[in-house]
Specification:
With about 400 residues, this protein is an alpha/beta fold. It has a single domain, classed as TIM Barrel. About 45% of the residues lie in helices and about 10% in strands. A hairpin with a 2-residue loop joins strand 2 and strand 3. The longest helix is centred in the C-terminal third of the chain and has 20 residues. It starts with 16 loop residues before the first helix and ends in a 7-residue tail after the last strand. Bound molecules: flavin mononucleotide. The site of flavin mononucleotide (FMN) has 24 residues, from helix 18.
């Protein structure tokens, strides 16, 4: 993964035996998605894969990427380009990260830890969701060099829990703290609801049957339990079980941070900070004016509302507004290293993925997250080489056809 030792040949960069073994069966993330439902209970797959409403927002995210085309230049490349980048003062192996997720352990018990360990091994950013299934302190142990943390709004008692989480993050030496702004209300994800999930975990006979016929998932459950809201359990009272913790978290957490609140968190947190869920350049400008260093352009992977603009279509407007003053991160719809290249070509500094890491862990268990990181890096290398970019930054020189670009 060292960016100074890019292979001189045209062979794929990811050459570990594990990578080559799985590549044959899962040559792209689409194969992981196809295989994932065979290994996990239906409700688990539906939770991780669903969008809001009828998934139209998810499909729009994907087609927005598919419609972006780059005009390659030739006669410049003699080797596969290196992929290393610096983000907020830390060097990473590639501009590719794992987006924060609440409840990945529903999809695969223990998924948070698997993703964090794989990111540490590959040296790419891993973002723990505050509603995830591992504690801040545990992730600090297993992924100290790549640990980013996402927070939702815990505003009761003048942000008592929220500020305590900031202090825990500081003690754990989290690299980047990000506040999610795009969940002002709770919306319905129909496939998740229809599959029997929502609120506390009360398995119906159908869900129990779905678990029984998925032995690999059951083994993961036996090994790891059903860890949910691990970081929040601390505040729910000693001995709080999973469902009591879920109820507690839901009663405490909610609403979107106001700009005044963002400012208070900015003042308390001593490291780099990003705001996530930004789609409008004026919101990006507001954040930068408050001293926020990272703008995370995202529509939550289409999970909040169908009628939302694809984040990639909003990206150029945001890059024009604040690209010189802030680090620009992007997610929602990434399914390949070519999508990462498209994001870089349009001005992002790094791209993140959510759902596809859940497909990977569902399809391949322990090997899944590492396999997908390697696949994305490999695909990114090939895509950069193919368009004539010598490194990730040079992707910006490419001529891009982007019919969905939104003019603000
Ligand atoms: C199962 C799941 C749970 C998520 N939970 C959170 C969360 O707790 N906080 C957050 O900021 N984003 C959350 N997201 C959104 C992701 O951080 C990210 O924005 C999105 O998944 C990116 O789109 P993609 O899934 O198309 O890659 C979640 C996404 C998924 C799939």
């Amino acid at each position: 993964m060292d960016d100074t030792t890019a292979p001189q040949s045209f062979l794929p960069a990811g050459s570990s035996p594990r990578f080559q073994k799985h590549l044959k069966h899962f040559p792209t993330s689409a194969y992981l998605r196809k295989h994932a439902p065979r290994n996990v209970p239906r409700f688990a797959f539906e939770y991780g894969d669903t969008g809001a409403g009828n998934d139209v927002g998810v499909e729009h995210n994907w087609s927005a990427f598919d419609n972006i085309k780059v005009v390659p230049r030739y006669g410049v490349m003699t080797r596969l380009p290196p992929t290393g980048v610096e983000l907020f003062g830390t060097r990473y192996a590639a501009p590719i990260g794992i987006a924060p997720m609440g409840g990945p352990s529903i999809v695969w018990p223990g998924a948070d830890l698997l993703m964090a360990k794989a990111a540490q091994a590959a040296r790419v950013p891993y973002t723990l969701g505050v509603a995830g299934g591992a504690t801040i302190e545990k992730i600090a142990e297993v992924a100290p060099d790549v640990f980013w943390l996402q927070l939702y709004r815990f505003s009761k008692n003048d942000h008592k829990i929220g500020f305590d989480l900031v202090d825990r993050a500081q003690a754990a030496q989290v690299k980047v703290l990000t506040l999610t702004l795009d969940v002002p209300v709770r919306t319905t994800r129909s496939r998740e609801t229809y599959a029997g999930l929502g609120g506390a975990f009360k398995p119906t006979p159908r869900m129990i049957y779905e678990m029984m016929i998925r032995p690999r998932w059951l083994m993961a459950l036996l090994r790891n339990g059903y860890p949910r809201f691990a970081t929040i359990r601390h505040y729910a009272g000693t001995g709080a079980g999973t469902n009591a913790t879920i109820d507690f978290a839901r009663s405490e957490m909610g609403g979107a941070f106001s700009w005044e609140e963002v400012k208070r968190y900015r003042d308390r947190w001593k490291g780099p900070m990003a705001v996530k869920g930004i789609l409008h350049p004026q919101d990006a400008e507001k954040a930068v004016a408050l001293g926020i260093e990272g703008i995370w352009v995202s529509n939550h992977g289409g999970r909040q509302i169908e009628a939302v603009a694809p984040s990639i279509d909003c990206l150029p407007g945001i890059v024009s507004a604040v690209g010189k003053k802030a680090t620009i991160l992007l997610d929602s719809g990434i399914r390949s290293g070519q999508d990462v290249m498209r994001s870089l070509a349009l001005g992002a500094d790094a791209a993140f993925a959510g759902k596809s890491f859940l497909w990977a862990v569902a399809a391949l268990g322990d090997d899944g997250p590492g396999q997908l990181i390697d696949l994305y890096i490999d695909e990114l290398r090939a895509a950069l080489g193919q368009i004539g970019a010598q490194n990730p930054a040079e992707a910006r020189n490419a001529k891009v056809l982007h019919p969905g670009r939104i003019e603000f």
